[in-house]
């Protein structure tokens, strides 16, 4: 395959509006135009079961997606591979979360499951997020037997400072077992098995599709995308990306808000 292949992140990249549709009409137009001469793959921290992922795939007629920060790869809407987190590591992650009173999301083959350590926040989540999340429960009720092939965790924090502090502690505790990156403007830590990230999933995709490295471009906004350096022909950081990512990127695009993807792609 000689035509260009674009790997495009969702949150902070393609997503540029709030409301029913997270992708503006301008961004939708840009992707649909690009698809006339390029292959487009979604590359996201969200799971394949996520309703927003399904929505974008339907809107843009995209059938290939790297999900759960690289823990899953779907081609033509079929699961090609999934890298689960080992049971011992799962239990250690839960131990760490509970010890540090961290709310967390669990991703497995059945969907997304949110566990909270505050009863009032749990009540709010049930009231406003039930449509989007398969399970919403209190952290102490987590039972490993209720899940099948867990492939990702995410920790959420109100403070960017605390996110950075917890990342250092987590890496000291489990650094040889996991990949952990900060995303969502510094408020989330995304955790996968050591053998899973967006770069490794992209490498697998290129091998299956027989795509040459120089014909690939990845566009993203967080450190979960930074690992793509050297795994694609060009790595593009959105203007809203952290400084560390922008420093290593081959190119910096406009900020995602107000159709940043449209501004970047159409100028090409």
Automatic annotation (TrEMBL):
GO terms for cellular component: cytosol. The lineage of its organism: Bacteria, Bacillati, Mycoplasmatota, Mycoplasmoidales, Metamycoplasmataceae. The gene is ywpJ_2. It is an enzyme of class 3 (hydrolase). Its EC number is 3.1.3.-. Pfam families: Hydrolase_3. It comes from the Bacteria. Its cofactor is Mg(2+). This is COF family HAD hydrolase protein. One of its GO terms (molecular function) is magnesium ion binding. It comes from Mycoplasmopsis bovigenitalium. Keywords: Hydrolase.
């Amino acid at each position: 395959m000689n035509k260009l292949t674009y790997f495009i992140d969702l949150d902070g990249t393609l997503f540029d509006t709030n409301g029913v549709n997270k992708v503006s009409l301008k961004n939708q137009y840009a992707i649909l135009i690009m698809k006339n001469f390029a292959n487009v793959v979604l590359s996201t921290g969200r799971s394949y079961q996520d309703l927003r992922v399904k929505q974008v795939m339907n809107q843009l007629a995209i059938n290939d997606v790297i999900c759960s920060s690289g823990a899953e790869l779907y081609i033509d809407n079929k699961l090609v591979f999934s890298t689960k987190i080992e049971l011992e590591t799962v239990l250690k992650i839960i131990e760490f979360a509970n010890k540090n009173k961290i709310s967390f999301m669990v991703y497995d083959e059945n969907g997304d499951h949110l566990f909270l350590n505050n009863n009032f926040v749990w009540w709010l989540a049930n009231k406003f997020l039930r449509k989007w999340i398969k399970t919403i429960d209190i952290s102490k009720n987590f039972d490993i037997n209720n899940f099948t092939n867990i492939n990702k965790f995410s920790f959420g924090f109100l403070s960017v400072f605390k996110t950075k502090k917890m990342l250092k502690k987590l890496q000291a505790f489990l650094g040889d077992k996991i990949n952990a990156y900060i995303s969502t403007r510094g408020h989330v830590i995304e955790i996968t098995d050591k053998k899973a990230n967006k770069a490794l999933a992209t490498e697998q995709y290129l091998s299956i599709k027989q795509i040459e490295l120089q014909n690939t471009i990845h566009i993203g906004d967080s450190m979960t995308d930074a690992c793509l350096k050297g795994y694609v022909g060009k790595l593009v950081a959105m203007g809203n990306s952290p400084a560390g990512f922008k420093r290593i990127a081959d190119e910096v695009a406009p900020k995602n808000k107000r159709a940043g993807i449209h501004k970047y792609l159409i100028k090409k």
